[in-house]
Design a protein that fits this description.
Helices cover 38% and strands 15% of the residues. It has twelve helices and twelve strands. The protein has helices spanning 46-56, 68-78, 90-102, 118-125, 143-148, 172-181, 206-212, 240-248, 257-268, 270-293, 314-323, 343-357, and strands spanning 33-34, 85-88, 108-113, 129-134, 154-160, 187-191, 216-221, 234-237, 305-309, 326-327, 329-331, 335-339. The strands form three sheets. It has a seven-stranded mixed β-sheet with strand order 2-8-7-6-5-3-4, sandwiched between helices. Strands 9-12-11 form a three-stranded antiparallel β-sheet, with helices on one face. The protein has a two-stranded parallel sheet with strand order 1-10. Bound molecules: 4'-deoxy-4'-aminopyridoxal-5'-phosphate. 4'-deoxy-4'-aminopyridoxal-5'-phosphate (PMP) is lined by residues 38, 90-92, 116, 160, 164, 191, 193, 221, 223, 229, 234. This is Aromatic amino acid aminotransferase.
């Protein structure tokens, strides 16, 4: 490459990589479990698979670009107007669209760190500036510091609750106090990717919050609680002008025909899917209690994952996990995030964590 070759914008080279969770290691005679991407261990329900199989027959055609049936199903389910919704290619697509629609180059996006790794990627890709506010020692957002970080250039604040990868969620009282300090011109995105897993006192009521705040957007996904990560469907709930801006910058046909079918069929089977969520929450409780009994000081886990702060022991922990057939997501020098998975996988994690302490 040189001056005579096409050059991407300078900020493109500065985009940090997205490190996808590793697949399970294949070892003869040993089942290995993938706990590295906060996926749902349950496969799609048979009725969802059937709906998808039926939709496959029309995959020679483009999808319904308006995703009309899915918008209507979501609108009915959530009790919000269709105009307040914006579907996307996963909720990560919404993060890109939000930054693209609201930030000029050099504008600032404030978020907690460590948090979801796609945030700095989306922000840098748009030539906006990432303003990272360290999480507190217990993994919670430092909302006071985040409010204090807002400047004249701030256009968006991302609040990840529950926070990936540390685990805690913000309370409604904390969110209200924060929103009271945020100027009305600043968009507050509440990333609720794991909202269905929250079991706490005073949980955030996202829908009530968006209804009472013209600058609040919720982002949600079918990837986690609904177990459709491979289909890539996310959605935003936002005041109509914001939702319209998101739809305007969306990728045409970004939600495939099979993805629309899977999401609709899942909404129709929500009670069964929420039973699975309940089982995963029970497993989460078992894992967290077991870890604390074993002397681990893990943060409150409100998503479908647990955070181990390990510092320079992170790589060793990931390697030891791999040895016992579980794949975790290491963050070099910081810690490891481990998804709640199959009961057997969670058993192995508990045994490993007891051994690793010694
Ligand atoms: N937000 C958070 C906090 C996440 O952890 C994830 C997935 N890891 C997403 C958004 C994106 O999920 P998806 O694009 O599958 O909807």
């Amino acid at each position: 490459t040189g001056p005579d070759t096409p050059q991407p914008r300078p900020n493109i080279g500065a985009i940090p990589p997205y490190v996808a969770g590793k697949p399970p290691t294949v070892r003869p005679g040993m089942t290995s479990y993938k706990l590295s991407s906060n996926e749902n261990p349950y496969p799609p329900l048979p009725g969802v698979v059937e709906a998808v199989q039926e939709a496959v027959g029309s995959m020679n055609r483009y999808p319904d670009m308006g995703s009309v049936a899915l918008y209507e199903a979501l609108s009915e389910r959530l009790g919000v107007p269709v105009g307040d919704l914006s579907l996307a290619t996963g909720s990560v697509g919404l993060i890109y669209q939000l930054v693209q629609a609201f930030c000029e180059p050099g504008d600032e996006v404030v978020f907690a760190w460590r948090s979801f790794e796609a945030y700095p990627i989306a922000v840098t890709a748009a030539a906006a500036t990432a303003v990272k506010v360290p999480v507190l020692a217990d993994g919670r957002h430092d909302l006071d510091a985040m409010a204090a970080a807002i400047t004249d250039r701030t256009r968006v604040v991302l609040v990840c609750t529950p926070n990936n990868p540390t685990g805690p969620a913000v309370t409604q009282a904390e969110l209200d106090a924060f929103l009271a300090k945020v100027p009305a011109r600043v968009l507050v995105v509440v990333d609720e990717a794991y909202v269905e897993f929250v079991r706490m006192d005073d949980p955030v009521d996202g829908l009530a919050t968006y209804r009472s705040h013209p600058n609040v957007v919720l982002t949600r996904t079918f990837s986690k609680a609904y177990g459709l990560a491979g289909f890539r469907v996310g959605y935003a709930v936002a005041p109509a002008p914001i939702a319209a801006a998101l739809r305007a910058v969306s990728l045409p046909f970004g939600v495939s025909t099979v993805a629309q079918a899977a999401a609709i069929a899942s909404l129709e089977r929500e009670p069964e899917l929420l039973e699975r969520v309940e089982a995963l929450v029970a497993e989460r409780t078992r894992v967290v209690d077991g870890l604390r009994d074993a002397g681990w000081d893990v943060p409150e886990a409100q998503g479908n994952f647990v955070w181990f702060e390990l510092g320079d022991r992170t790589a060793d922990f990931a390697a030891a996990a791999d040895e016992v057939g579980i794949v975790v997501r290491p963050f070099a020098g910081e810690g490891a995030r481990v998804s709640i998975g199959e009961d057997e996988a969670n058993d192995r994690l508990l045994v490993l964590a007891k051994e690793f302490q010694k």
